Amino acid sequence: MPTLCGVVFSSLIGCRCPIDSFGLGRGKTGQLLFPHNLHYDIAKARKRNKNFQLKAGFWDSIKSSFTKNSTTQVIESPSTLQEEEEPLPEEFVLIEKTEADGAIEQIIFSSGGDVDVYDLQSLCDKVGWPRRPLTKLAAALQNSYMVATLHSVRKAPGLEGNEQKKLIGMARATSDHAFNATIWDVLVDPSYQGQGLGKALVEKLIRALLQRDIGNITLFADSQVIEFYRNLGFEPDPEGIKGMFWYPKY
C-alpha cells in the first residue's frame, strides 16, 4: 500500500499499514509518537502546556515558499482564542497569493469539520489510498473529536461570487474528551505538497486540542516521516513507553 503524510493505522480507511500522505515511503510498522514537554496526566499537562511552543520562524518558513513570487501575500495567523471550556471552531485564511492571470487563490484552514465525503474520497485517490465504503468514511468523520481541513478557494478576476473551492488537506483526531487525543489520517494534495501546509495543518490541530485542555497527544508515524514529526515536537517512546497493537488472527 502506498504510504501517505506520516499518520498510520488509519481508521478512516480501515488500513492496518502505515500511511504517509506526503508519499515519503512505505513501511510495515508504525511508531507511536508523543509530543515532548507533555506529561501523561492532565494536571501535569496543564502545568507544562505553556512550554509547548511552535518553532520560532514557523510562519517565516511558510512565507519562504512563496516569496519568489512578488504577488504572493501570506496572511498571519490570528491570535490564539481565549481559553475556554469548548472553543469555537477556527476558520481563517492561511495563505493568499495572486496568480499570473490575476486570479486570487486562498488556502483556508478550518477546524470546523466541514468535509464532503465525496471530496475526501477524491483527495484519498490523489494520494493513492485505496477506496473504502463511503458510509465508513462518513462514520469516521462523524465520530472524530476534531476534523481539520485545508481548502483552496480560487477567485477569478471580475467574477464576483464565482469561486472554485476544493479540499486539499485534512487531518483528524479522536479523543476521550478529557486527557488523550490521537491524530490520524493527515493528508495533503500532492500538487500542494512542499509548501509547509502539512506542517501548518498538524500544528494548528495540536493548538486546537491544547485549547480544549487535551494534554496527551499521540500519533502513529511511518519510519520515513519520524523526523518530520520530531520537528513538530513529537518524540518516540518517551520514558520507555511502547505502543502495542492487537490484530485478529485470520
UniProtKB/TrEMBL annotation:
Look up the record and report any one GO term of the cellular component aspect.
nucleus
Q: Which InterPro entries match?
A: Acyl_CoA_acyltransferase (IPR016181), GNAT_dom (IPR000182), NSI-like (IPR045039)
* Sample GO molecular function, one term: N-acetyltransferase activity
Q: Is the keyword Acyltransferase in the record?
A: yes
Fetch the Pfam families from UniProt.
Acetyltransf_1
Which family does the record assign? Belongs to the acetyltransferase family.
Matching PANTHER family: ACYL-COA N-ACYLTRANSFERASE, GCN5-RELATED N-ACETYLTRANSFERASE 2, CHLOROPLASTIC
Protein's name in the database: Histone acetyltransferase TAP1 isoform X1
What lineage does the source organism belong to? Answer: Eukaryota, Viridiplantae, Streptophyta, Embryophyta, Tracheophyta
